[in-house]
Amino acid sequence: MVLVEPFARMATNPAFLIQVIWEGFVSGVLYALIALGFVLIFKASGVFNFAQGIMVVFAALTLVGLHEAGVPAWVAVALALVVMYVLAVGVERIVLRPLVNQPDIILLMATIGLTRVLVGFGELVFGGEPKVMIASELGIPSGVWRIPLFDRVVVIKLIDLTAAIVAIVMVGGLAFFFSRTRIGRALRAVADDHQAALSVGISLEQIWVIVWFAAGLVALVTGIMWGARSDVSFALEIIALKALPVLILGGFTSVPGAIVGGLIIGIGEKIGEIYWGRLIGGGIESWLAYMIALLFLLFRPQGLFGEKIIERV
Amino acid sequence: MFYREAGQFKTGYADDMAVFPIRQDRIGIAVILAIAYVAVPMFGSPFFVSTIMIPMLILTMAAIGLNILTGYAGLISLGTGAFMGVGAYACFKLATAFPDVNVLVWVLASGFFSAAVGVVFGLPSLRIKGLYLAVATLAAQFFLQWCFVRVGWLTNYSSSGSIEAARRSLLGVQITGPGASETARYLCVLTLLVALTWIASNIVRGRIGRKWMMVRDMDIAAELMGVRLLPTKLLAFAVSSYFCGVAGAMLLFFHYGSMESIAFNIELSFQVLFMVIIGGLGSMIGSYLGAGFIAALPVVIKFAPQILGIELPSAVVDQVTVMIIGGLIIFFLIVEPHGFARLWQIGKQKLRVWPFPY
């Protein structure tokens, strides 16, 4: 029953299946964007940045907050980027520099502490209630496309389409930046070996600031896109936790892995929720991603594209 | 001068292996127990006992549990909250199904259910460790929390979805449920904690604890020396989850009295993790100090402005509390990554040579 019925439903209504896959694809793109922020920082400093989720919220809140204070939309974007830069510098100075060479768990804890600071500070400055993202001011279209398919209609929101396109463009840009530019090469050197990079004259501090700023940029874009689909609120922080299974799937150090992992998790959990979820009580979205990741770990512990550095016992 | 072990000779192996080999430590622990058992219930205000002491002691129990897993066996877990939940729900089911048996028995027994669940989610630990394992335990966190909400049997199909501690008594004194005096609840919690701490400290000093530390420090070397990794790691998960489960059951029966599944969320897991890290990984005393710090800090921050005469809206106080806790965590990690337990050690060393600096 549980095994047959969902497939029967998929077969009898393919348009709905495509709709579900599209929804999963879009949330997968957004998971992938958050995971991308993690990967950037993990690659360059070995820090598992738990604060990426709250950085998304914080960036989006800054943007909306500035616009509410009367700043024009695009200027607000620029100012939000400045705030993210200041944050990156501050994190590097205050948190990371004194903690060089500490074990993983200490660095992870430090970013959890950072999460708390940002949550408290964000609520203090912007208030705890959800805010509406300034989507139309930023020129994000709000209509829908109705595509007739298999005698039914597939609805595609233009916001979602924009989000997907922006994500693709940004990932392409970052890939170009990291593989073709001077700073990108320096970053990969730092990721390989901190000491060797230092000894050939690469400034570790500078690279960390750049990487955290890049993560802040990704956070801002993610915040705008996610905020345009729902509201901007601290509840978004929980989506950061969804990025963890994405990372497991894709590998902690792989940019393409983050994207493929994000799509697998996004589509997988939507299909699971819609077709199987109601058979066992609903709401399985909260843990399905982790279970997929856990099963995956048993077969390929380093992830789809990860380097084989995971310590095996 | 007062803390010097010169002249305290050991004449047998038993003396050598004692938990407190130094006389001053034995006196100190006796004084602390006397204060905890006599002075606190006699002189502590009801607010102090029920709002600070009881949750602090319960969270200490959870911190000891997580410290066994993370500090001694080196396995990171973010699922503590869910394991505590398993204990609470198991205790609720047992206490409602068998009302004649003393509730303390069920509190202790509920830990075994938590241990069983912990072992199941510990299974991946053979293949993965570190941050990957942390994600595996997050799977436990979210899956179990979902179970608490969706499986009606766990809450006896209560319409509100919450579980409640029934009225139960021990030796004619009511210890759980509405109307139980805070002194009675406090003494139950304290006794359970002291007993289980004694058991835990003996486990970690013995053969099993040594094995855990070997696995933590270098698992491959441990395996070469004949430690079988899977049973050792699973035992760590089992013992750790047992303590967390008992802590969860105590949280329901002796502190809140009525709880919803949301209480066992990831925030609780983080809170316990903070305690372990700030207190000191791999140290029993650290679990106490860390739990005391994290549990008492919000209360202190809440009342400090009032004492100083500053009036702040409660929302602002909450936000500032969150910020200060986050900041303090970072501060402690930078200044003393080995936690309060290390400070305690340094203090003892200073006392040993006092009044001389070396």
Task: Tell me what the structure shows.
The complex is a heterodimer of chains A (313) and B (358). Chain A is mainly alpha-helical and 313 residues long. Chain A contains twelve helices and two strands. Chain A has a two-stranded antiparallel ribbon with strand order 1-2. In chain A, a hairpin with a 2-residue loop joins strand 1 and strand 2. The radius of gyration of chain A is 20 Å and the shape is globular. The radius of gyration of chain B is 21 Å and the shape is globular. Chain B has 14 helices and four strands. Helices cover 71% and strands 4% of the residues of chain B. The mean pLDDT of chain B is 84. Chain B has a two-stranded antiparallel sheet with strand order 1-4. In chain B, strands 2-3 form a two-stranded antiparallel sheet. At the A-B interface, helix 5, helix 10 and helix 12 of A face helix 6, helix 9, helix 11 and helix 13 of B.
In short:
Chain A has 313 residues and is mainly α. Chain A has helices at 5-12, 14-45, 52-68, 73-96, 104-126, 158-180, 182-192, 194-199, 204-229, 237-250, 255-276, 285-299; strands at 144-149, 152-157. Chain A has a two-stranded antiparallel ribbon.
